[in-house]
Structure formats: structure tokens, C-alpha cells
Amino acid sequence: MGLFRRNGKKRRPAPSGETAGSRPWVDHGLADGETVECGRCARTLRVAPQFASSVTVSHDGALEGVALICTACGQLLCSACALAASDNPYLPRCDRCGGQVTLPVTG
Ligand SMILES: [Zn+2]
Ligand SMILES: [Zn+2]
User: pTM (2 decimals)?
Assistant: First the structure.
């Protein structure tokens, strides 16, 4: 109840204030099957987004040729570049900002 005392500031973020950029792995605007370029080695990658409602995530070799996206800066990367930027083979990272890299999410 004491939380209501914090409303002294008049500026309130709108519920729909989440604009593109805050969650680049969701707000990427990429379509399933689309092709993009890796931001590091410029190879052509296929967009294979995982569905937010799905719990099936495969990380074993299935990432070859598939576009990954940095959750911090939104750069698109291939798995080879993302893994090369990390010293952990199970934790791909962005070569530009060091952010965590994941499959784009849709749905
Ligand atoms: Zn690459
Ligand atoms: Zn990044």
C-alpha cells in the first residue's frame, strides 16, 4: 500500500511503451525463412525464429547457417562468429558488445 506514495512524479510510462530496441530478439521484424547476413563474416543466414510459446530449443548443431541475434545490440550473427566471440562453447556471445546471443523469438 505504501507504494502509492511513489506516484509523485507525473510521468508514467504507457503500458505499450515498449518500443523496438528494448528487446531486439523479439522486435527484430524478421520472418521465418528470410535470409540475412551475419554482421561479422557477412555469410548468408536463414532466419529460423523460435516461437515464444514453444519450449523446444535445440542447440546441437542445428544452429549451423541459422541467424542468431544479440539481445543487447540486436546484431545478427552466425553461430560460428558468436561462438568465436565467446570462450564458452555453450554460451555464444556478440563479437561487438559481448552481449548474450540467442535465436530470434517470434509469436
Ligand atoms: Zn559470421
Ligand atoms: Zn551485441
Answer: 0.73
Domain assignment of residue 81, yes or no: yes
77 alpha carbon to ligand 1 midpoint, in Å?
5
Residue 35 lies in a domain: yes
Residue-wise burial string across 38-69, b where 16 or more C-beta atoms lie within 10 A, e elsewhere: bbbeeeebebbbbeeeeeeeeeeeebeeebbb
Per-residue pLDDT band for 11 (boundaries 50, 70, 90) equals low
**Arithmetic mean of pLDDT, 54-80:** 82
CA 94–ligand 2 middle distance (angstroms): 5
pLDDT at residue 55 above 90?
no
Domain hosting residue 77, numbered range: 22-53+62-107
Ligand 1 centroid distance, CA of 33 (Å): 18
Q: How many domains does the chain have?
A: 1
